[in-house]
Design goal:
Order of helices and strands of chain B: EEEHEHEEEHEEHEEHHEHEEHHHEEEEE
Helix content of chain B: 10-25%
Order of helices and strands of chain A: HEEEEEEEHHHHEEEEEEE
Radius of gyration of chain A: 21 Å
Structural class of chain A: alpha+beta
Distance between the termini of chain A: 36 Å
Low-confidence stretches of chain B: none
Largest sheet of chain A: 14 strands, mixed
Number of helices of chain A: 5
Mean pLDDT of chain B: 96
CATH class of one domain in chain B: Alpha Beta
Number of strands of chain B: 19
Oligomer: heterodimer
Number of strands of chain A: 14
Largest interface: A-B, 44 and 42 residues
Shape of chain A: globular
Distance between the termini of chain B: 58 Å
Largest sheet of chain B: 4 strands, mixed
Low-confidence stretches of chain A: 1-24
CATH topology of one domain in chain B: Alpha-Beta Plaits
Strand content of chain A: 25-35%
Strand content of chain B: 15-25%
Strand order of the largest sheet of chain B: 12-3-14-13
Amino acid sequence: MTLQRATILFLGSSTLLFAACGPAKPDSPPTEVRVVKVEKAPDDPGAPAWHDVPAYQAHLILQDLVEPRLLQPSTTTLAVQALSDRTHLAFRLAWADDSEDAMPGPARFSDACAVQLPSRLQADVPAPQMGEAGRPVEILYWSAVQQTRADGGLTRIQDLYPNATVDHYPFEALPVQGDETAHTRMAARYAPARASGNQVAQKAKEPVQALRAEGPGTLAPADFGPVCGQGDRTTTGWSVVLVRPMPSYLLDHQAAQVAFAVWDGGNGEVGSRKMRTGWIPLAMEK
Amino acid sequence: MARVHNWQLGREMSYWYPASRPKRQFAAVFDVNKCIACQTCTLACKTTWTSAPGQEYMLWNNVETKPYGFYPLGWDVKALELLGPQRWRGPMYEGRTLFEAAPKGERVLGWRPAQRDYAHPNVGEDDCTGAIEGGAHIQTPHMVWFYYLARICNHCTFPACLAACPRGSIYKRPEDGIVLVDQSRCRGYQECVRACPYKKVFFNPMTGTSAKCIACYPKIETGIQPQCFENCIGKIRLAGWLSHPDHAQEDNPIDYLVHVRRLALPLFPQFGLEPNIYYIPPVHVPRPYLVQMFGPGVDAAVQAYRAAHKDPDLAGLLGLFGSTHRAISRWQRQANMISGIGTHGAEVVRVPLREPIVIRDAFDSTYGVQRTNTP
């Protein structure tokens, strides 16, 4: 057993012990993320359905296991709420962030957050740092830049640099004008990431991505169903809803585990440079 | 970190992955003395590969005026400053590489250029190091100087971009050593941009992914030199393949220039990446500047270049630069003729050691007119 794995088991065991110490007092903060049942899970952070849902205050820690690491803590707490209408599972994450980082560029990074669930229910959960080989996790990822794109921004270079002037793009040449197929084919030649189907490079309709991983560095698009959501800028930071299809193992009112991550783009956080949680108990409302 | 042998440093060094040299390594020699900064290479590349939204300031190939030209701004001086003292003892590098100097939590010692650093591709163009005093005459090395440094991705043997990508989205092709960003896997973390000391990986904000020079691999695969080589007006470039020094072949033109004659030198070898674009250093520039940029072999290289006109092999091989669009795998000299042999083993070009000189009479008796020289 590796030290990392032993640490995970220890943390997991101590969390379970804590949770098993009897019912919490009515006004004490939740010790688990409780999924509250509703008629319809909202994808709007401002929906009234969220008002009475208890918020779990997740403590975020540095991602300091794999390089490149984050060495100085940035976002330290995250308020988590969860709702379900039995077909969808929705999370609302709220955290403080002084700066709004919702535009891309050289050395500019996006504010972002993620929700992680094990792909299947098992007593011995995968490593909380994005799972491990043969023991995948499913991830919902929202980014402020993706939100900008989904909201219709960033379609032209002038959306990023208002004073930019461009003489000519090849796909605007006369021979391909009026021919949508030729135009698209020509444009694709200069955007190989988009042409190759890279999820990041597509013209996003939703600000949330469905991903899976089997360890750090293995993030890949997932097919666990359509996902959606929305992020709103608040007076103090972000309030983001991420919605995914209900994992089948949660339909049986079983408890599970969930983990979260937050990136402060203004602090240069991207990829593995992030604040994250370990596994947190996730319980369906009976 | 693994231990690998970097022959440019004359020693082992630390690298993120174990050594895995390709079957053959794409490499090139640029003769800096011949570059006129016409930027035809830059445009050839740009129109071919980077002409879409988000690529406006993406220059896989650029030519900058040294010492005050940079793209992006300060790319080299920033890396040199970060790295600190860089000591050589003869051919062995005693300082730290960018991998060995990586701070805690990082894979490579790097930095992130900001948006404004990409805003002025022509900064410093044609700026020389000082004013010329009245009555001065040219000395060598020149008392004030500048030169043009053409740059593409170095397709390094130990790429920092590859080491830094936490997703393994950058790979080095085993068949030719060309370093590529997997466009289907890249998630735009810009770790490669941060790590590459040459700053030859670029972030595209419109696709959210990074991209870099691909050495025109579709052309290389068919035995044709990349766009920036084929279109070089000054004929400063020669593309080919480089062997490990233990297996250098005299009839391989790149091996001959790099290993046998040691005329062409790597760019900032002390960074530790074992870059594969080699430069014949400019002969008129003060040595300390050149040694910092090209390593301790500068004196010998400049001396050999100055004497090249007396050396039929060297002069002949330099004549093959820009003589054909085909990539040259081997070369040979027979008397006063130099042949270039392509990737398929057939002769693709033959050039004379000395181009014949024809002097016309000043008066054209056929038409009864005085001839004039029109450049």
